[in-house]
Amino acid sequence: xxxxxxxxYMARNNNGIERTFPARLTLADVREDIxxxxxxxxxxxxxxxxxxxxxxxxxxxxxxxxISAETKLLLTLRFLGxxxxxxxxxxLHGVSRSSMSxxxxxxxxxxxxxxxxxxxxxxxxxxxxxxxxxxxxxGIPRVLGAVDGTLVPIIAPxxxxxxxxxxxxxxxLNIQAVVNSNMRFNDVVARWPGSANDAGIFDNCGxxxxxxxxxxxxxxxxxxxxxxHYLMTxxxxxxxxxxxxxxxxxxxxxxxxxxxxxxxxSRFRCLHKTGGCLMFSPDKCAQIVTACIHxxxxxxxxxxxxxxxxxxxxxxxxxxxxxxxPAPNHSGVLHRNILINRY
Length: 343
Description:
Blueprint lengths: L7 E5 L5 E5 L12 H5 L3 H15 L11 H14 L3 H8 L3 H18 L9 H15 L4 E11 L18 E8 L5 E9 L4 H6 L2 H8 L4 E3 L10 E2 L7 H28 L14 H20 L28 H11 L3
């Protein structure tokens, strides 16, 4: 790893003046057995991703010893995976702190622009596959996904600072996501501040309107969500064997979204409280969250091993019950009773 040992490159600028540049780390400099632990993807996946986004991030000129697309991708993956300080990531890859900041967001934007792997099941075959996965998992039919929210700590923004304060006193984004039975993210809403509750976010998302207007299936959500015919929640105070059995089955299906958040934040520590907080504007933080979810889905598709221990869903995320949840409507109660009567 040339940059770590201070090896330098010599180059001349357009005026013929010789300049010194730190050596830049490439994938070939990293031992294969530690690639995943450092970059969260294997070498094959990194090269695949590089080919996908290179058009968007490749330097337009060689002037001033420009930074290659490969180096830009590596420093971005390192930051997302480790949540390291800019200076440490930059030093490791032979890049200045200012270049690190600029190219991180450049690569994140390219990932979100080119990767199209966050997609809710829309075709009949996709819906059948999704519902079969949940039926095998928990025995509840016609389930297309489990929905929940998670908090991602961010620095206090300059604008509308108060609305980003979660009730425990820190600034965050509240990220809504829907996952399938394999912990793959199929829908993400990453634009709401920490003060927003889960029910309010869901009520204003496009997926809610899609499910409301089209009888294609339902989601599983915790008691912070309203009971609807397309959104099943647990019975708050179960009475009898049937209601208890329904709650047990519901919990088996819904827990996948909590596990998915835990896996996501374990793989990409920049999103977890142990990585500090994201030091960017809310819009840029939302872009980083979305890019991490794209990469999470890629890891699942390519069976990339998880480095280290998988964290549980953050404790602060598990007590987000809003003070008031919209009352269940008649169709929601009817559909849930039909499910309860199966037991």
